[in-house]
Structures are given as structure tokens and as C-alpha cells.
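User: Run a structure prediction on this.
Assistant: Running it now.
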Amino acid sequence: MRKDFPHLGFFLFFLSVWSSLSTGMAMAKNETIPVNVGVVLDFNISLGRIGMSCISMALSEFYASHGNYKTRLVLKTRDSRRDVVGAAAAALDLIQNEEVKAILGPGSSPQANFVIGLGEKAQVPTVSFSATSPSLSSLRSQYFIRATLNDSTQVPAITAIFQAFEWREAVLIYVDNEYGDGIVPYLTDALQGINVQLTYRSVISPVASDDQIGEELYKLMAKQTRVFIVHMFTPLGSRLFAKADEIGMMGEGYVWILTDGLTDLLTTLSPTDIDSMQGVLGVKPYVQSTKDVQSFRVRWKRKFQQDYPLDETSEPNIFGLWTYDAACALAMAVEKVGTANFSFQKTNTSNNISTDLDTIGVSQIGPDLLQSLLSTKFKGLSGDFQIFDGQLHSTAFQIVNVIGKGERGVGFWTLKNGIIRKQSFINTNANTYSTSKNNIGAIVWPGEPTYVPIGWVLPVNEKKLRIGVPVKDGFSEFVKVTWDPNNNNKTQVTGYCIDVFDAVMNSLSYAVPYEYIPFGTPDGKPLGNYNDLIYQVFLKKYDAVVGDTTIVANRSRYVDFTLPYTESGVSMIVPIKDNKSKSAWTFLKPLTWDLWMTSACFFVFIGFVIWVLEHRINEDFRGPPSHHAGTIFWFSFSTMVFAQKERIVSNLARVVMIIWFFVVLILTQSYTASLTSMLTVQQLQPTVTDINELRAKGYYIGYQQGSFVLGFLKRMNFDESKFRIYNSPEELVDLLSKGSANGGIAAAFDEIPYMKLFISQHCSKYTMVQPTYKFDGFGFAFPRGSPMVPDISRAVLNVTEGDQMIKIEKEWFGKTSSCSDDNESSLSSNNISLDSFWSLFLIAGLTSVLALIIVLAKFLHEHRDVVTGEDSISTKIRTLVTLFDEKDLSSHTFRLPDQPYNGSIEPMPAIRASPVVTNFSPRPSTFSTQTNNDIPFSEEQGTSSSEHGGRSSIIPGRQSSQAIAPPVELANSNQERTILPTSTSH
């Protein structure tokens, strides 16, 4: 017995240890802390059932992968029964009786409005994954967590679609509750920012019947806008489109755009509902289809079909992904709070009613749980989960098109890049924001048209546009109204403006029927001026005004103008007179004074340059000082008529003269042509050249009847008593012919198109005078905000830039415009200025200066001994002047006439005298090189041989021989005949 005791003791010790471990493990297993969380959803609709299935899946899968967590969320569900009061009662019951620490839900913005207040009072965070209305943010409750997107975040994507297709009008159809009202101000402001007018807001009650929906749609059908933005949930949205399809609003020309509230639920709709929405566009938050998302969809579909076998929903939408992430985030936040105090602090009250709001307790863990939830970050199914400003944020939306049995993606929109075609570009770093429709894929529009709908049509109760046209007496080339003598109700409207408008309307990509209605009486009298006609569009009596209507600021307050199709501006027209000069000084007028002075200076300068170049080598430029000055002036001015007699022997002087002859030729020919024009051509000049002259002298002026020019003249401070009216070109001719002093006018003010037409018919008598005052020209007027204005403005550009506009102008104005060019040329100036010749003078001057530099440099080099000598500067200058005045005997011009020039400064060898004796005295230069150096010669008799070199020449290789020469008879100053012996040797 004793021997077994130790074994027994060891067994008992092991048993006790095993029992303790088992108990500890059991206790550890039972130590998970349950945390009550409320769920408030509408379980009788697909959105609520999807939400509940996603929440249960999220918690089941989350705790399966996080088994070490000490807390466990326990769901307490309540059905709100699609009622605001029901949702509030459910939330109150959960807080009061279940003491939930957080609430997931409710499913709609109207229900969340009151539940948020309860959560704020009890410090219970309310986490909603489908309450998207921006109006909930105004409640400023810190305990409201929007685990979804604010509806306002999709507004930029919607406006980008409008910019892409250039729609200018839209109708907003939204549900009449907090969800529908919340987006209205954001969408309105955004559309106005891109010049899109929200023409109508259609509000539909959540409980509206099919008949009420149809009645509202018929109202929209009667309007001209065909772009509709639908902001509502199902089933109201599906009922709306079923009714629209029934009454024919899903055909050609209609555009329907869904917000994300309805686009995200397209997968929950029945095939019948989808069939009635063919061609609809929609936007929804973009979620990348990762492997986790694909796996979740498979698991969810299997579970959802088990839980709700009668529900035909095929896959979870974005709300389901947000619900899954919200449940996981709440589980993480509760775990981070730890095992804190999860109790409620009861409110002391004498009221025994348990549902009284005064008895609501306050969650002790609420503030900590809120902060933990706000700081939770993780990678969820919908993307990066992180709460900013109490809600999620998204920067990408997908654009889808309802086709066939479901939706098809046609593009994406991002905050950084705008509209892009492929999802692969979403995360690029490109900073180019685009709204081009080329980045959107092929869209099947309602009715399957082959074109993009323009977004508007004529209302069905109006068959044709009523186009008002002015009635006037004159200038019928622009607009002319002719009444049928047999039927006053039948008219014919023609003219330049009418043809332009017809061409513009024919160039549109869609047909618009219209008819012209004259603004006048059957007897051809206008019913008012142009301002009155424009105002009829504002009064909705006309749909547009076509004619010679000018775009001015005060008219644009009542109508919208298209781009102008004519030249702009107001100008002054005055008579012209022959201003041919009869002055005796007319010969001076062809050239301006600056050209006269420049020419005179250059004549003297060129003469001086030629004298310097020729003085030392040319006998024609030598002589006494008075002869030098006369030569300079005579030579220079004689070149004007090419009458100079002096020879030019220097090459540099010849170059200068060649260029100067060319300048003189051009100058004289131009002078002759201008003077001839002045003396023979009629010189027409305006009688008045300045508007200030009209005011100062009190002249009468004219303007066209009914024109806005009257207001312009008043603003220019003209005396209204000096105004006279004309209705036609004939009346204008009569007034201008009489003149201001004889009951007429001195000038008329009108728009450039009228003035050009008038001048083309009377170009020899009248002309337009500058300046031209800026105005915007003729344009077509439409009601303010009309969607036709952008289309017609583009069509105006297409017409005016093409050949069709030229044909129209030739048809109406081409026959009378042949003399306008002649008139303009006759008014131009005939004076010739220095601007036309300065380059010629520059070339001549540079050539002359260069020639002077070369000659002076050569002269100074030849006499460098004088320049480098030790004499004073004044002595050097006098010496150089004296040397310059002497002949340059080294020049070829002073060689023997009978000797050829060999290019050297050395004289040719002596030539033997002929044995023939003549009876007359030879020239001094003939014997100057054959006389002895001892014989003196006067300057008039010739130049001694010493002046030519001072030495004799001997032919190399030969001995000097005796030469027999006849005696030479010289005549001295005393008229004595002297016989000199002929030298036989040099």
C-alpha cells in the first residue's frame, strides 16, 4: 500500500492540473464580451434585405478571421417598415430597451433625419450606408457617420456630361422628401456655372399614383426641354420610367440621366423595369472589381438566395459593399475601445412611460466609440475606408448606359482628369481635365437614333416658330416685305438678312419649321421701331426676330442674340468735293518737305564728294577757288537732268555717280508722276472730316428712321434740334445734296452695312469718314435662355466662313459695287514722302563716304613724311592742303597723249622726233619731255620733264645713239622766235 502511494499522489496532482486547465480554457472561451448593436432597415424591400445579409456576412467572416478579439457585436434588428415614424420608434426602442452602443441604418435619408437626433441625445453613433442626402450634413451631429457618399459628390460628373454633349437646358425630376431636396441647390448652382438653365423642377410625391405621375410627365412633354435628370429611389423610379415609356417619352430626341441613387439599384430591378429604361444614362461611384470583390459576390449570392429565395436580386450593389465595410469598421472600433464600461446612465424621471424621450439613457462608451470609429482605416471591399468630415469620399464615378438586359459602362469621370474612356487611366498622374464626348463610348439613346439628341425640340402644341421681321421703306436690299394685293394676310419676305437666316437654318443638323411675320400694317407702315420689335420677343409674341437688327447692350437685357453675321460699327458719311489745287506753288506739293530738304542736301554732298575725288587728277575740276565752288554746285544739280559736261576719270567717282544717277532717276520719275496726277486727276476730298467740326459749327446731321443711332448721337452730345430723319437712300441723297444751310444735312450717321451699300451706289459724290464707332453688327434675336442660340451661332460661323455667304452678298450687293475702289483711290494722298526713298539715300550716302575714306587714306599714305614730321599740327594741315591742291602727276590722266599708259608712274622712253619740219608751233605738251631741263617753261606752255619724273629713259640692252632731230622754233614772251638746237641725247 505504501509503495503505491506516490503513484496515487502523482495521479491526483495531474488530475487537479488538468481540471484547472480545462476550467481556465472554458472560462477563457466564455470571456468574449457581447456588445449590442442596433440595425434599422426596411426588410420588405431589396435594399434592406441586401443590407441585412451583408451585415451578417461581414460579422461572421470578420470574427472568423479575428478569433482573438474579445468583443462580439450582437445584432438587434428592427424593421422600419418604410416609414419615418417607424424608423424613429425602432431606434428609440433599441436605445431605451436594448441599450445598443451603435445603430447601423436607417436605410433612407428621411428616416435618418430623426434617428440622428436620438443618437445625438443618447451619444449612440448612427452609422448609415444609404442615407446620402446633403441636407443631413446641416444637422451637424457628430454622432452621425455617413459610411457612404454625399449626393453632392456626383454633381460634377453630371455637369461634365452636359459639357460633353453641349446641352443647354435640363429638367430635374426628384422625389419630394429630404433625399430629393438635398441635391437641388448643388445641382442648380453647378448647371448655372456651365451656362445650363434648369428650366423646370418636377417634384413627385413618394406615394404618388401612376395617374399622378402620368399627369406630371404630360406637363414635361409639352415643354421644349428634352434632357431630364432623375433623382429618386426605387420603386418610384421604376414606376416613373414605366409611365414615361407608356406615353412615348422614351423615344427619339429624349435624354434621361439617373443619379447614383437609382443607378446603383439597376441590378435589383426586374427585366420589365429594365426594358422600359432602354437608352438611359446613369452615374454611380466606381469600385474596382478586385478578386476580393468577386469572391464576395459569389458568397453573397449563395447566401442571399438561401435567406431570400423569392428575391430575384442577382448581385449586391455599391450599398451592399458599403454595408459590409461599415459593419467591419464598427467591429474594429468596438474592439479598440476594449472592455470599458458598456453601461447606460439612466436619466432620473418621475414618468413611468418607458418610451418617453426624457427617460433615454446616455451611453458611457459613446464618445470613445465615436473617436475609435473616426480613426479606423482599412482596405475594404469598396476601397479605402476612412471617414473624413463624418463621411466617405470618392473621386471616381462610372458612366453607364442601360442596354438590353442591364447596364454597360461607357466611360468614367474623375476629379482630376474629368471624362476618360478606360478605367486604366483613373490612377494616372495626368493633370488634363477633359469633358470631350470623344472620351465616352458608343451610347444607345432612347429610340435608338443615329445622332446625339440636341436636348430640346419645339413644343408639340406649337407647329412653327413665329419669326418677326421689320417693315421699312428704304434699304430694301436687307429686308423687304411685300403684301399680296388680293390677300392682306399673305406676305412675301425677301432680302439679304432673310437669305442669310434661311442658309443658317438649313445648315442645322435638325429641322426647325418657321414662318415670317411682318411687324407692320398691311399698308406697309411699321408698328414701331426696332426696339419695339425686339421687345415683342420678350413678351413672347414672337419666337425670334430676323432682319437688320443690331446687337446693342440695352436690347440684350430682353433677348439673347446670336453671333453677328455682318461687319460692325457706325460711321459718318459726307459729300465730297473736287479739291484740285490752283496754287502757283503746286510744283512743290508732289514731294514732302522732308524729302525736298534731304534731296537738296544730297545734291550738294554728292557734288562735294565728286570734287574731292576728281580735283587732283581731272583738269575739269581744277582752277581758282571760286571756280571750285561753282563746279560743285553746277555738277551736282546738273545731274538732275543728266546735263553735266565734266568728265569723270576716277573709278571711285564713277561708282558714286552710277548709284547717284539711279537715285536721281527714281526721284525724278516719281516726282513727274505725282505732279501729273495732281494737275490732271480730279482730287476728291470730304467736306467734313471730323465729328467735332459738326458740333462746333452747328451743322444738321441725319440718321435712319427707327435706328438705334439716335441714342448714339445723343450720347455724343449732339443738339437734338439738329437731327433730321431719312427713310431711304433717295431721301439721304436729297438731304446731303441740299446741305445743312438749305434744309438738308452736312453728314449722316448709320451702320457700316447701310453705308457701304449707299457708297456703292453714289461713290462719286459721297464717302465714309473715320473714325468708325464699334458696335456688334446684325444678329438674330431669340428669347433669353433659348437653347437654339448656341446652335444657330455655330451655324452662322459656318455660313459666313463659306462660299455661300459670298454668293448671297453678290446677289444683293454685287451689281452696285463697281466704283467703290475708284472712289477710295481718288481720296488718297499723292504726296511722296521720305519714307519711300530713305533706303536709296542711305545706299548713296554710304557709298560716297566710303569713297572719301579711301581717297583720303591713300593721300595721307603718300604724304606720310608730312604727317609724321616734327612740324606743328597747323603747319602740317597747311602743307597737306597745299599738296592736295596740286596735281597728282602720278595719275594716268597727266601722261603724254601719244604714249600708252603702262600702269606705272615711270614715263615712257623718249621717242625720236620726226625729220619732217612743220610750219606751225606744236602744243607745249608735245615737246615738254624733249627739252633740256635748263630751259624754263611757263605753266601755260606745258610741264617739264622733271615734273614727270626728272630723268631720261634708256632702253636696257642697248647703247645710246645719236638722234638727228630738226631744230625747234619757240616763241618767247617777247614774241621773238628762238631756234633751239635739238638734243641728240637725253
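Residues 651-680 form the longest helix (30 residues).
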